[in-house]
What does this fold into?
Amino acid sequence: MRAVIGLEIHVQISEAGTKLFCDCRADYRGLEPNTNVCPVCLGLPGALPVVNRRAVELALAASIAFKCSIPKYIVFTRKHYFYPDLPKNYQISMFERAGGIPICKGGVVTFPDPSTWEWRECRVRRINIEEDPGRTEYEEGGITRSPYALVDYNRSGVPLLEIVTEPDLRSPREARSLVEYLMLTLEYLGVTNPRLEGVFRVDANVSIEGGERVEVKNIGSTLDVEKALTYEIARQTMIVKGGGRVERETRHWDAARGVTRPLRHKEYEEEYLYFPDPDLPPILLRDEMIEKASKLAEESPRKYFEMVTGMMIPKDLAWSIVTVKHSALLFMKSVKLGADPQVAARIIAVDYKGELRELGRDPHDPRNWPPPETIYALSKLVTENVYTYDAVKGLMLPKIASNPTIDVSSIVLEKAENLESIIDEVLRAEEKAVKDYLSGKSQALNYLVGAVIRKIGKRAVDPRAIRRAVEERLRKT
Amino acid sequence: MRRVRGAWELVRDFREGVEDPVEHAYKVLGAIRAWEPRVNAFISLEAPELVVEAAESVKRRIESGERVGRLAGVTVSVKDNICTSFLPTTAGSRMLDPYISPFNATVVERLMAEDAIVVGKTNLDEFAMGSTTELSAFGPTRNPWDLSRVPGGSSGGSAASLAYGGSDVSLGSDTGGSARLPAAYTATTSLKPTYGLVSRYGLIPYGNSLEQISPMARSVRDLALLLDVMGGWDPMDSTSLKVGGLDTFNSPPLDVGKLKVCVVREMAEGADPIIESAFWSILERLGSEGAEVVEVSVPIISKALPAYYTIAFSEAASNLARYDGVLYPAKGFSGVWEEFIAESRMRGFGREVKKRILMGVYALSEGYRDEYYIAATKVRRVIRDEILRVTRKCIIAAQAAPILPPRLGERLDDPLKLYAMDVYTVIANLAGVPALAQPIGFHSGLPIGIQWLAGPLEEGRLVSLGTLIEELTGLSGVIAG
It folds into this structure.
């Protein structure tokens, strides 16, 4: 069944440093409840909002990256609704039809389909900057039945981008790809850290032929975007096939059970009493701010992907490099130093990443990666035939992964000395084989090389180099 | 009627050792003790020993030759919708009783940094919504000039405290005349600054786009002194103008021969004949001194009152949404959240506040917003343009109040009459221009005031004109009793 999907994505501008209208921290995670608060984000009487320019700059960078038309100035509006974790009982947002001016109108996100490597387009209707509410925890049964609620305002006032797409998506898989790529792009721009818990939420509008539009709220991961939409399309398809009608409604994604469920029906129309916030005069987007934001907007996963594939790196390998922002930067720097692109790509995209996985280290943490000089040095060892790639991979990458700042020359030396003594040891122990070889039985060499490799251990080594070293050593005796 | 010296003279005399700030503090505390039971100007008072202690500290520092601030030893009363961390801030509402703000308003910080002594928080109509100071959860304030009458509002407590000598200067707030109307009713003065000249940080908002914290005093020079201390850019208020280094106190005297006064007909007509005659007689005096007095008409002003109230109520409905009993003193609890907040708001807000919230909600609702709120903001724009066209040429003379101070209860039953008391004052708020109110006479012991409007940031001109008027009328530093 053909589906039409549009998304509304809320992403925290987690890299803005402070909240949208005060000096509290934008990253509230791991803090004691209600310790990241002040009169402004608690909405105390008499406190006034002052916009965080960095947040606007980052939102502007996103708008430029998505080719939006940028207004001369932006205007914040108030959106009113009563909720315990919304301390002013209004949210500061940018509602267009009541005098608000959003930071982006009419843009487009270009995102790849990883199965075909084709670039698709999804139009962006608009991007708002708004504040996140606090967090409410209910004892049981939600807002209507719980005997009490616990409210934590640490998140209150954290800057959000609300990105609304046109209904240009056709499958759950495509929707997921869009969200993944969008988040990656925002990471490249320096807007957000996609891996922070709860850093983004997705609401999806989905309809199938002959049915009304259904909104699915509360989707918290890219995987769930695909799951929730798949479920919802199947549900709608069943209704239509059964001769029923899909009604227009709002449903809630229950991630634990993997189903969407209807939200309580509203007895009245929503009425948000929008109007421009009189505490926040229009904010001019000055040329210097646009310039700074444009600079940020130059970074994109696509740009790196194209640079990497331009070096004849296979697309899946290039994608693996690009999906980890730091590894893409590292790759480009290493190549610039003179590293061989093919070698650097194999190290970064496959084998070093694999070592990190084995050690349980986060590949997105730059501290877990070596400097570009290391990649360059390793690449040189391979291209100058000092070692085979497998030797580098087997002998050196594990050591670097457990100590990324280690000096490459130190592990190269260690290995060489080690090899000499291991060979000596093996030759001493294998007197018979040595004698056999010296008496002309050339297959004894294979046995000795094998013994050395066994002695070195399970790690992959360069058998050719060992063969050369053993031959050399035997020639001397 | 008695006369007292201005705050600026007091500071000078304290510094020169001619006057004792401690003695002065006792005098002010004595007036409060004598008058408060009848007037009810204050909602909360600072402990007398702390007031005396502060005065002693000023005295000590003067004696030891230390630098003291520009308001050293001056007692100040602060309207109770301006946040203080050392006294409760109720906004005259049960909803915020008791609420103690964790921070001081910027203006309070600036006053205290200049060694002013806060003596207490003054009464007001709940959330500044009213023109008589009868609509407070803490009872009405009475006019010291006639205890059967109101002091005007909503800054009636501040005006009354000045009128009986319970403070030397005061901080009021002016959303549509809330500081100027009480000034006119109590023979005191008030200057509503250009929008954005004074930080609103710490002012509990009623109509954010209209209001300014306003100095109140018994003389125009005191207003200037206060304004110079409290005004200027504040990074905590996005609507604050980037100006600093105010020196309206030393505004050059006015060359009356070059003065041009425009009487805007719509802001002069319709007042009580007694007030009209006082108004025209002071303008004649100015004319005989050499000023040019001309009459002009700004017809759009007939739309000012509905535009003003539509904007103010809309903003109020929004601002007051936060009072739901969750973060502020809970007023009731029924176990169900929706019912809990409904009950908190039902019990916490007074009738007038609820009425204004409902009207504001209506004006902002889908389907009505264009007709009401948006239409009102368009009228505001036109009024602003028209007023600026006039103030570019002259200072505007206008009535401050259409009637003499009414008796308690007299205006309350008719909301339209209550709202009509603001007809002359709302113009300055809609246009964002500065406006000065000052006394020009008395009738049967009741004060009569006048109002002057100038262009944006022309506070200095108003101070010069106001000082000239004081010289003509002799009405500065007067107190009741």
